[in-house]
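Standup notes
- HV: blocked on the assembly model, inputs below
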Amino acid sequence: MISSLPKDILDKILISLPLKDAIRTSFLSRTWRHAWASMPELLFIDDSIPSTYLNANFLLFVDRVLLLHKGPILKFHLVSSCCCQVAIDRWMLVLSRNGIQELVLDLGHDEWYKVPSTLFFCQELINVELSNCIFEPPQMFKGFSLLSTLKLSRTTLTDNGLENLVSSCPLLENLWLTDFNGCTHLKIHAPKLKVLMIFGFFEDLHLGTPKLVVASIGLDGKAGQHDVAGGTKSNLIQAFGSIPAIEELQIFGYFIELAFEETPMVPVGKFWQLNMDKRFPFKHLQNVCLSSFSDLEANFEFVKFVLSTAPMLKKMTLRSDGCPDESKVLRKLLQFPRASKQAEVIYI
Amino acid sequence: MRWRHRACGGGGGSSTDAGADQCWALGMLLRALFDSKRRKAPMVSASIRETVAVRRPDSEAKYEVPVWPSSSPNHRDFANWRPIWTDPSRLELKNSSTMSSEESAIEAAPETSKKVEPPKVVVLQSYDGEEFEVDLVVASQSETIKNMIEDGCVERSVPLPNVEGPVLSKVVRYWKRRVEGGKEEELKQWDKEFVEAEKQQLLEIMVAAHYLNSQPLFDLCCQAVADTISNMTVEDVREYFGIENDLTPEEERRIRDVNRWVFD
């Protein structure tokens, strides 16, 4: 049989085991004795720890693993709802000394923690997913030069904080911001961004993402809650005009209606033609999904505009908001001219 | 609030980004290899692979597209919605090396048209002389073989001195199924059956997949091996791997003391 396995394979097997079993392999032989301690990935998911280590003892367990571990820790995933600020600060310090590349923290929905400043100086970070946190970069923060994926959920951060963060990560490709608070005017300038997901309450969106391929934008809240100061409409145009490579577009909530809430002199019908005529924003667009589609003129005009200017469109899905007169909506949709022969319009 | 209006329209995607991206990838590898702290080069990590794959402008790597809830009765009620990625069982990164057959064919074609005209069919020769004739796209599931072909070292047959015949046949069977493609659930189900059927030779297949650098097969085998040994006793695991117990009783006692906290 196999007498000795190369380290790559050993590491991979140990990573695939629950942590408790990985530590147990230290009993197998001399080669295996310290193999677990140099695993490059540590995944602390609630069900993988010994059953006696629940709640407060979980902190002790993580501490001990980190203490006995040696070598780089490339991936660190922590999913648990019994951690405290002090412990997180401690662990972040250890990770920052061990070349952390991928960090995922999901600490439940109750406690909020402040992201420790040591995290901001981990220059090897490539992938960060955080939730329930307060994200305040220190003044000396120069950005993450290798960061490619950033997912923040239920996070508190400021407009400036977000703008600086995004513009100081030159390789950022995936940005997911959900349930954020503290920022209402989002400015995202990321030259290499490919996937953008925004879901939350915001008043303005400013995009500088020429390579964006997938955009998923959801606006939380109700009509009337927004303080539309007139600057919003032009920024919506600017947002759609600055994503020429877009292939997949998902819009949730009443993002489009918001732009038309305070209609000025220009009638909605002419709105898109006048402002988007010279540019062709949807050259590569293939898939569109509008959720909570109600039968307001703003929505129809947008659908009409997309259908008439997207030559590669394959599918447009409209999920209705429970509007009563479906046949009227369908009749209207059928009338719109389509630039793409293969476009399917699905109304659910 | 002062708005900064930047000329962002039109993108003007410059294709010279391709060269820059490749230089970046090379730089990362060199940096990892010659890192003064003697850290292991992060070659095997799926996240690095995914990163490099996404950077190639002509790559067809899939993006992780956010999924909205589709069946909530009131779409404006967001209170119960949570993005899918916070579900801990979905924390694994999408392994973007599981490309569909068309994508791998598209990707294989432009790269192999360099100096020598690549053969459409290659013959894989195992250690014990068994030969397997397979299409180029099937053999390209192995990064090792793919690189050999690209470098022009292969005319028709590829010698694989580290892999035995019976093991190679199982590997080829897996590759062929992968190339056929299909829905994710179907592939997953087939993977499960494959692992169950090849239980006896799982370790050999795993080592072969590692040597041939075929990431999906390697991941699958490692997970299956881990699942197998997960509930075994120490003696059974030793037997499974064929490991000799070279620990003295003194050493065993010391390990037990150090790791007691795991079992208490």
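- HV (later): unblocked. The longest strand of chain B covers residues 121-125. Chain B has a mean pLDDT of 70.
- Next: hand off to the docking folks.
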